[in-house]
Amino acid sequence: MSERVLITGASGFIGYHLVKGALDKGYEVHAAVRRSSATGDLKKLGMEAEANKTGKLLFVYPDFTSVESLLPMMTNGAYDYVIHAAGLTRAKTNDEYKEVNANYTTRLAEAALKSGFPLKRFVFMSSLAAVGSKPYHAPTPIDENEEFKPLTSYGKSKMLAEQHLAEIKELPLTVIRPTAVYGPREKDIFILFETLNKGLDLYIGHDPQWLSFVYVEDLVAATLAAFLEKDKLHTAYNISDGKKYDRYKLADLFKEFSRKSPLRVHLPLGIIKVTATILEACSSKNAPVLNPEKISELTAENWYCSIEKARKNLGYEPQFDLKEGMNVTLKWYKAQKWL
């Protein structure tokens, strides 16, 4: 009988790739989605897996409002592993971030333990945003021993989730903290590619920056490798491709692959802050892509992080640097007529 894994946020960008990776490895995957979620592409993955006699895909619909409401799903599922990748990346209030990113996470972990089934690993998809950035000239990259200094409410909510999970001493926990994730199906960084494709290469201010990225398939590999952790109850790993890039590298690679020459423009920080404030004020529901907190994240000086701990403990070795990953990603966008 195949081992069984619950993957929350399965209909999202990272969730889709986690489902695919787990099916490819032969797991029985229970994809947790909202009843309103578009699941057509996930269903195709399930059909392909069954045709190839690899994994098996089922859908579940969690109610995160309480531990008790989650318990029937967790008890019936009898999961060997849980990957909690669901969460909000944009919200109007701190309370929304806290409820979904921190409280939902805690309830799911408590329900997993309360179900009575011997959970082998609970993997929480956090973010490097929970830790925060470093100064541009910092002598060392961000590592797992850094003090939490999140710049945004999103980062704070992920930090809070990590802190809540750490208090559940009996939980076999692995925290994954990816940096900026890109790849086929990604929609936020894709906005930059759309802008570049239209002829504009935009930046906020002139200050230098170090950035880091991870291709989604590498993130999936690191996440699934966490299933094999046996000895340590609570662990955390920063995940990137192990390299640092200056603020122009993404656009330079786009130019190389597209053979286009978008106009490079540096926008004054003050104007962007005013614009972001207006956009947020005019937004009636979720926060817009560009909001005041996002500006803090986008202008942070240094997101370069160490992956040595993941290399040592998980056997993680990135297969894609930014150039290789961008090449695959842009080809996918073009094939799907996104660009």
Q: Strands, helices and their partners?
A:
Layout: E1 4-8, H1 13-24, E2 28-32, H2 40-51, E3 56-60, H3 67-77, E4 81-84, H4 94-114, E5 121-125, H5 153-166, E6 173-178, E7 180-182, H6 189-197, E8 200-204, E9 210-211, E10 213-215, H7 216-225, E11 234-239, E12 245-246, H8 249-258, E13 263-267, H9 269-282, H10 292-298, H11 308-314, H12 322-335
Parallel strand pairs: 1-2, 1-4, 2-3, 4-5, 5-6, 6-11, 7-10, 8-13
Antiparallel strand pairs: 9-12
CATH superfamily of the domain at 4-185 and 212-243 and 303-319: NAD(P)-binding Rossmann-like Domain
Order of helices and strands: EHEHEHEHEHEEHEEEHEEHEHHHH
Give the helix level as a range of percent: 40-55%
Tell me about the largest β-sheet.
Answer: 7 strands, parallel
Strand-pairing-aware structural class: alpha/beta
Compute the number of strand runs: 13
CATH classification, class level of the domain at 4-185 and 212-243 and 303-319: Alpha Beta
How much beta, percentage-wise? 15-25%
Tell me the CATH architecture of the domain at 4-185 and 212-243 and 303-319: 3-Layer(aba) Sandwich
Overall pLDDT level: 94
What is the CATH T-level topology of the domain at 4-185 and 212-243 and 303-319?
Answer: Rossmann fold
Low-confidence stretches: none
Query: How large is the radius of gyration?
Result: 20 Å
Count of alpha/pi helices: 12
User: Tell me, what's the shape?
Assistant: globular
Strands of the widest sheet, in order across it, are: 3-2-1-4-5-6-11
Distance between the termini: 43 Å
